[in-house]
Write a structure and sequence with these properties.
single chain; alpha/beta; six-stranded mixed beta sheet; five-stranded mixed beta sheet; 11 strands; about 30% strand
Length: about 220
Amino acid sequence: MRSLKLAVPKGALFEESVAVLKAAGLDVEGLRNPGRQLVIAAKDVEYYIVRPTDAPVFAAHGGVDAALCGRDSLLEAALEVVELVDLGYGACRFVVAEPAAAAERADDTYARLGVLRVATKYPRITAAYYDQIGVQVEIVKMHGNIELAPLCGMADRIVDITATGTTLRENNLVIVDEVLQSTARFVGNPASVRTDPRVRELAEKLTASCVDKNRPS
């Protein structure tokens, strides 16, 4: 039987992803220090180390059988995958923020022009949020340092992920609303979930390990 293919996100979720896979009984020794390797072969498993935003893409299009990624990546990708487990780690939230010195300025801009300009790395999530509250926006897609957009007058507000709010405060931005909360998820390729029992078995083991981790001692 071929190896089970799993996408593991690099970056902030990587270490805890390795930890939960180990707790579920998988061989993760090669994942601990992968160096520049992007594919790690272990007993009965092949790990593909991917960008967090690409993890749903690999799972949806059959590059892997299953993936670990943040809920934010799932929502932004909007692809057909099966969400199997809320892993609980990597907690963060999407927020709307604006310059502290510009309190109420964005509201005045909207009242005058009927549209807000919002900078974000997550246009799909941002558009869905503003559609829900009935506010018309012009979305400016950025890839980094979006805190600069309202500070230089390029946007009225930003929508971004924050865990503690520290970066926002350090750049004199204040949170004016919360969009959604995100944690890491285990998702499967739809065909693999239906036809490969190993995907469902791993989901059960991950669920059990998460329950054990959160059980009061």
